[in-house]
Amino acid sequence: MPRPKKPIKSKIKHRPFLKWAGGKFRLTDEINKAFPKKKQCLVEPFVGAGAVFLNTHFERYILADINPDLINLFNLVKENVEGYIEACKPLFDAPNANTPEYYYAKRQQFNKSTDPFERSVIFLYLNRFGFNGLCRYNSKNEFNVPFGAYKTHYFPENELRYFAHKAQSAVFFCGDFQETFELADTTSVIYCDPPYAPLHQHTNFTGYAGNDFGLTHQRTLAEAAKKIQKEKQIPVLISNHDTKFTREIYKGAKFKAVKVQRSISQNAAKRVKVKELIAIFKA
């Protein structure tokens, strides 16, 4: 009689509750392989929607972003996810929720509001109904992402609860990468997911929470990563486009090249695989 087959262990991957342009959900397996086996503290200066955080198993996390709306949102979900879910559902359930009129009214309400809880609730609606998970502000610090015009929508209730559960081992911090680097200690691993360097270097702009993150910032980040790796003798990983420019500024790192499906376009035919680079600085 043949032996019964062993059950195949499924690796469950957890999606963030936010859509996020440039998010690393598809790359988490490769990033995990690059992390050291001993996992105490993960420091992320560009946490974004938190895909790497949600799919790693460190004892503790220091997660930062320059966007105060994002960090306020994460702290609210961490502290009271059920209250947050209850407040968000009416926006998603409104009969005209998926219309440009409703969307632009809520965007205007968000931009006029100074209440952190109200802004956090509307932020989720704008994120899920806006265009392709973009998070963009104008020079007046007003959220200006257009309506997404999607046929269907999904309220990420389970994803919110998992994030809140995982967040109990995390500290969320609003600051830039240089401030965040200072919070790392000798038990830390730093993972940086900066705004992508342009594929063609004649373009010198990338949106960074409403601010510029150009080639000078990319170089500054690379130098800061090399410096803190040497000072604290800890691994520092950076993911970016795989270009001549990124290979030049990350010189001295171990390179891991992968291809990732790009999903910034609504048109599936235009979602091509792009070369991505993981630069690993370690002793």
From TrEMBL:
Pfam family, one: MethyltransfD12
GO biological process: DNA replication; DNA restriction-modification system; methylation; mismatch repair
Enzyme class label: transferase
Enzyme Commission identifier(s): 2.1.1.72
Alphabetical list of InterPro entries matching this protein: Ade_MeTrfase_dom_2 (IPR023095), DNA_methylase_N6_adenine_CS (IPR002052), M_m6A_EcoRV (IPR012263), MeTrfase_D12 (IPR012327), SAM-dependent_MTases_sf (IPR029063)
GO molecular function: S-adenosyl-L-methionine binding; sequence-specific DNA binding; site-specific DNA-methyltransferase (adenine-specific) activity
Gene3D superfamilies registered for this protein in UniProt: Adenine-specific Methyltransferase, Domain 2, Vaccinia Virus protein VP39
Keywords recorded for this protein, A-Z: DNA replication, DNA-binding, Methyltransferase, S-adenosyl-L-methionine, Transferase
Catalysed reaction, written as an equation: a 2'-deoxyadenosine in DNA + S-adenosyl-L-methionine = an N(6)-methyl-2'-deoxyadenosine in DNA + S-adenosyl-L-homocysteine + H(+)
UniProt key word S-adenosyl-L-methionine: yes
UniProt cross-references to SUPFAM superfamilies, sorted A to Z: S-adenosyl-L-methionine-dependent methyltransferases
Positions bound to S-adenosyl-L-methionine: 20, 24, 65, 193
Family statement drawn from the similarity comment of this UniProt entry: Belongs to the N(4)/N(6)-methyltransferase family.
Name used for this protein in its record: Site-specific DNA-methyltransferase (adenine-specific)
